[in-house]
Amino acid sequence: xxxxxxxxxxxxxxxxxxxxxxxxxxxxxxxxxxxxxxxxxxxxxxxxxxxxxxxxxxxxxxxxxxxxxxxxxxxxxxxxxxxxxxxxxxxxxxxxxxxxxxxxxxxxxxxxxxxxxxxxxxxxxxxxxxxxxxxxxxxxxxxxxxxx
Length: 148
Hints:
This protein is an alpha+beta fold and 148 residues long. Helices cover 29% and strands 31% of the residues.
């Protein structure tokens, strides 16, 4: 994750501020985050980093620690959050954006029932490449998601 995501380079004060911002989003009903655990061990994070309740849409985000990759950790977390977003929040659309060259993330999204919808150019802000990296938008709706 550190090589791919710029948030991995936060100092402890910046990280604490980011965590506090997630609490604020929950209170304002504009976002939600959960730890992904294997037993009592933190193996990842899954959340909706942008919720627009009025429009019924949200943007899903997640990461998985290297030791937990390749074990269907991400697809299971994505599927659970997708089900909650549709059933509890009443959303009708979730979006998942990732770098086009992040094939493991693409596979996780597809396993969770998302499908390719398009490419957003020059929107990636990952540190290991330039700002011109591409992102791939995937979406899921209750009708297209395979949540079983």
